[in-house]
# Entry
Amino acid sequence: MKDRIMKGFIEEIREKGMKFSMDDLARRLGISKRTLYEHFSSKVEILETIISQTFAEGDEKTRQILADDSLSLLDKIKGVMLVLPTHYEFYDLRILEQMKRYYPEQWALVDSALSDDWQTLRALIEQGVKEGLIVNMNVTLVMKLIIDAVNSTLDQRFYMKNQITVSEALAAIVDVLLYGLIPVDKR
# Structure
C-alpha cells in the first residue's frame, strides 16, 4: 500500500504541483483519508520516504555494480552513471522548484545528493585514469561535466517534447561522455 501511496503522491505532484491535499491524494487512490494516515502521517513523511527510498535504492544498485566481478572498470563506470532512481519521474525541475519553495528541508537533501561530487564514481574515474583507460585530465572538471550532463535529465519537458525517455537520454549522455561523438571506425 505504501508504494501505491507514493506513486499516487508523485502523480498528484505531476498534475497539480505541491499544493494538493491529503484529501486529493486519498481521492486519487480511492481510499479513505483515515487509511492514508494509517500509512503516512503527512505529506512531508511521504515526500521524505520517496527521497530516502530513491537514494537508498540507487546506493544499492551502485553496490551491486561495484561487487560484480564480471564487469570491467569501464562497464562499472558506465553502470554507475546509468543508475536511475526508482521514482525518477519525481526528479523533474518543475517539481524540484516547487519543493524548494514549499519544502526547503527536503529539497536541501535532494539538492545535496544531485550536486554531490559522487565519490564512488570519482574513485572509479580516478582508477580509470591511473590504468590509462580514461584520458588524464582534471578529475574535478570531469566530475562536474558528468554531474551536470546527467542532471540535465531533470528537464523532463525537453525529453518528453522530443519523445526521448529519461533512460534513453541518460544512456546517450553516458555514451557521449565515455566514448565521444566520433564513431570508433572513424577515429
The mean pLDDT is 90. Residues 43-67 form the longest helix (25 residues). The CA atoms of residues 67 and 81 lie 15 Å apart.
